[in-house]
Amino acid sequence: MVQQSVTKQQISEAIRALDLSDRPLCVHSSLRSFGGLEEGPQTVIDGLLAEGCTIIVPSFTSEFEVPPPVDRRIPHNGYDYDADLPPRTMILRWYAPESQAIDSDMGALPAAIVATAGRVRGNHPDDSFCAIGPLAPDLIQGQQPTSVYAPLAALAKMGGWVVLMGVALDRLTLIHYAEERAGRRLFRRWSRDRDGLLIESQIGSCSSGFERLRDVLAPIERTIEVGTSRWRAYPAAELVELAAYAILENPAITHCDDPNCLRCNDAVLGGPLGVQDALP
Fold first, then answer.
1. Which of 1, 136, 259, 274 has the fewest CB within 10 Å, making it most exposed?
2. Is the pLDDT confidence value at 212 over 70?
3. E strand segments, the chain
4. Interatomic CA distance for residues 179 and 279, integer angstroms
5. Which DSSP string do the residues of 11-70 spell out, in sequence order?
C-alpha cells in the first residue's frame, strides 16, 4: 500500500485535535518521519500558520565560533581547549540576524523558516532561534548573546507548547532552559561582531541524555499520529518546572551514555566557574 503524502489540512487537523490552535509552538521535527509531505516543509509551515500558531525553531550556527582567548579559558566549560578549536578560516566571519546561515543538522523545517520572508531571528551567533507568525517579535526580541534562552522563557510565559514531530527528547532545547532554571551555569563560547570585536555568548549542554526525562514528562504529554509521524506535545511552562525539579533531585539524570562526555560532566558539576547567569 502506497503511503499518501501528508497535507497541510492534516497538519491543521492535528493541531486542533491537540487543542493547540492560536498558540506559540516550538517545533522540532524530522520531515522524513511523515513518510511524505505534499509540499515539503512548507506543508508543515502552512498547516500551523492556518491554525493561528506562531512557529519558533532553533536555527543554530556553529560556523561563527572563534577560538577562545587564552585569558578566558574558563574551567568546567564543556570545552577541550586543546582539541575543540574551530578552523581559523572562520575567525573573520560575523553573525547578524539577517543571515540565512544555518547548520545542516538543524533540519529542513528550520532551514525553510530561516529562508522565509518576514521571519524574525534572534541575535545570537551560535544558538539563535527563528520564528514566524503573529507572536514572532514578542518571542524573539529578548535573545542576546548572553541571554540565549530568552525566546524559550517567553514561550513558557505565553502559554506556549513544544511539539516533537517524529523526534526524541534529545532534540528538545527547552530542557536546556530547565537546566538553567535548576541552577546550572550555561557554557560560554566566543565569536566576533560586525566590528571585529570579540563577544562572549551562552550555549547549552549535551542533549543526548535528555530521553532519560521521558517518565518525568509523561504526565503532561499529548500524542497524535500524523501520517507515519508520531508527535509528542508538552506545555512549555510545566515541562520546565518538572524537568528542573528532576535535575535538582538527580543532577546525573541528563547525562548521556558516554561517561567521558565533557559537556555532561561539567554540566553535572554546575557549569563553568567564574560566570554568573542572569535568569530571564
1. 1
2. yes
3. 24-29, 54-58, 120-121, 129-132, 161-165, 187-192, 198-203, 222-226, 229-235
4. 11
5. HHHHHHHTT-TTSEEEEEE-GGGGT-BTTTHHHHHHHHHTTT-EEEEE----TT--PPPG
Q: Report the alpha-carbon distance of residue 163 to residue 132 in Å, rounded.
A: 15
CA-CA distance, 233 to 110, in Å (whole number)?
18
At residue 278 the predicted structure's pLDDT band, cuts being 50, 70 and 90, is low
Strand 24-29 and strand 54-58: pairing?
Answer: parallel
Cα 90 to chain centroid distance, Å, stands at 23
Identify the three-state secondary structure at position 129. Answer: strand
Q: Where are the beta strands (DSSP E) in 85-171?
A: 120-121, 129-132, 161-165
Grid coordinates given for 273: 566557574
- Domain-by-domain residue ranges, the chain? 8-62+96-184+211-257
β-bridge mates for residue 190, sequence order: 200
Residue 147 gets which letter from DSSP? B
For the chain, how many helices (H) and strands (E)?
Answer: 9, 9
pLDDT for the residue numbered 81: 86
Across the chain, mean pLDDT equals 93
Q: How far is 175 from 148, CA to CA, in rounded Å?
A: 13
Let me know if 249 is exposed, middle or buried by CB neighbors in 10 A (0-12, 13-18, 19+). exposed
Count Cβ neighbours within 10 Å for each residue of 59-83 and write b for 16 or more, e otherwise: bbbbbbbbebeeeeebebbbbeeee
pLDDT at 194: 83
d(CA 193, CA 191): 7
Whether the predicted pLDDT of 34 surpasses 60: yes
